[in-house]
């Protein structure tokens, strides 16, 4: 795969929901094993019913098939996920660059235990703004808030 093989397009609920939900779950199980499979499976319904429908989502496709996505809430990255078999190929980098070109600045929160993601964001130029010891559900999983300005 070459970087120019990736097409980024708007989310289409009727054709993308199930595929993006699967990408989210597969990537989350890989990146967030500390959360636990049961909790991630429970969160999947929220992804499908609440988060994807309410966010501005952009889908990365190779050969017409979704392989990653980024969901934005204004300038906040609510989520960015790439199918595990497509990670390391520059898709996440392209999704962030696309979002930055649209918004001019981006912020996100990342679990600090997800060291690969933290390194990815720092490598793209994100800078840490703050940390908090609990996640949105009150669990003791530290989050860092990061910002990137284009």
Automatic annotation (TrEMBL):
<dbReference type="GO" id="GO:0016747">
    <property type="term" value="F:acyltransferase activity, transferring groups other than amino-acyl groups"/>
</dbReference>
<protein>
    <submittedName>
        <fullName>GNAT family N-acetyltransferase</fullName>
    </submittedName>
</protein>
<dbReference type="Pfam" id="PF13508">
    <property type="entry name" value="Acetyltransf_7"/>
</dbReference>
<keyword id="KW-0808">Transferase</keyword>
<keyword id="KW-0012">Acyltransferase</keyword>
<dbReference type="InterPro" id="IPR000182">
    <property type="entry name" value="GNAT_dom"/>
</dbReference>
<feature type="domain" description="N-acetyltransferase">
    <location>
        <begin position="6"/>
        <end position="148"/>
    </location>
</feature>
<dbReference type="InterPro" id="IPR016181">
    <property type="entry name" value="Acyl_CoA_acyltransferase"/>
</dbReference>
